[in-house]
Amino acid sequence: MQWQVQVMIFPALLFILVFNYIPMYGVLMAFQDYNLYKGFLNSPWAGFKHFDMFFNSPDFFRVIRNTIVISALKLVINFPAPIVLALMLNEVKNMAFKRIVQTISYLPHFLSWVIVSGFTISMLSVDNGSLNILLQALGIIDKPINFLSMPENFWAIIITTNLWKEVGFATIVYLAAIAGVDQSMYEAASIDGANKFKQIFLITLPSITPVIIIFLILSIGNLLNAGFDDLLLLGSSPMLRDVADVIDTYAYRTGIINNRFSYAAAVGLFKAIISVGLLTGANYIARRAGSSLW
User: Fold this and answer.
1) CA–CA separation, 188 and 196 (whole Å)
2) Among the residues of the chain, which ranges form H helices?
């Protein structure tokens, strides 16, 4: 019976092999002056030429700054949000209301960024955008504002949009972890006079801390993954490039649009190496605290 169970994971292993490991051969491009017609075997070697070009590029500090700032804002704001929502939903006793809120909150996760960005652009539009109509109706502004052309507003827009799209889906994991907490501890705490807030801070949060730590490690490992679809769609305006251009969009623009394949591969490899270092460091610190991925 054991071999039947092991065979079930074969398609997943095959998928990972084909789409994750075999493409790693393309990392060679970062060390070559890759020519599409010559291929990997015949393209001339360039050493660390493309890495030097990236480090000395005038775009380097802007791209790194945007990546770190957007990722840090997502980590600080969007990471604790589903934990708070899960704690709030766990205290709701009306099951019908609880299910409605859960459905409404995690439904946006299943929408593509094309749909979400279109909805956001429409809402913030100068012409009949609902936000401008509301602000004018309240007398807060006199004329419509083009929010998506103002760099100072972009980070707030991208963080808020990400929060709305993903907060509900991440909440499911934490609700499942909370459901596994021993209910007798709540009963004992209630007898001892602990109110709901004390039960949350003294029982619920400590009980789900291992799950929180694991997701925090993964979030830190993805710190340089500031986003691609959302930033490419919402930050496409040249006026927003100074605040919207991150490593992924920069690699896409230089590699795919400008046909600088080796340069883009070097940028991507640089990000991957830093991400592995962040993941390893975060896991080491978490292991010292008693909970880690490995």
Assistant:
1) 13
2) 2-8, 10-16, 39-42, 49-55, 60-73, 80-90, 95-106, 113-123, 130-137, 151-179, 183-191, 196-199, 205-221, 229-234, 241-244, 247-252, 261-289
List the one residue out of 205, 215, 212 whose CA is nearest residue 181: 205
Structure tokens at 178: 């909370």
Domain boundaries, the chain: 50-289
pLDDT tens for the chain, residues 1 to 294: 678 878 888 888 999 999 888 888 888 889 999 888 888 888 899 989 999 999 999 999 999 999 999 999 999 999 999 999 999 998 888 889 989 998 899 899 999 999 999 999 999 988 888 998 999 888 888 888 888 888 999 999 999 999 999 998 889 989 999 988 888 888 888 888 888 888 888 889 989 988 888 888 888 888 888 888 899 899 888 888 899 999 999 999 998 888 889 999 999 999 989 988 888 888 888 787 666 666
Cβ atoms of 252 and 264 within 8 Å: the answer is: yes
Q: Which amino acid is at 77?
A: I
| Count of all residues that appear for the chain in the document | 294
For residues 231 and 246, the answer to whether their CB atoms sit within 8 Å is: yes
275 touches 265 (CB < 8 A): no
Report residue 138 as tokens: 């309240």
**Homologous superfamily of the 50-289 domain (CATH):** MetI-like (1.10.3720.10)
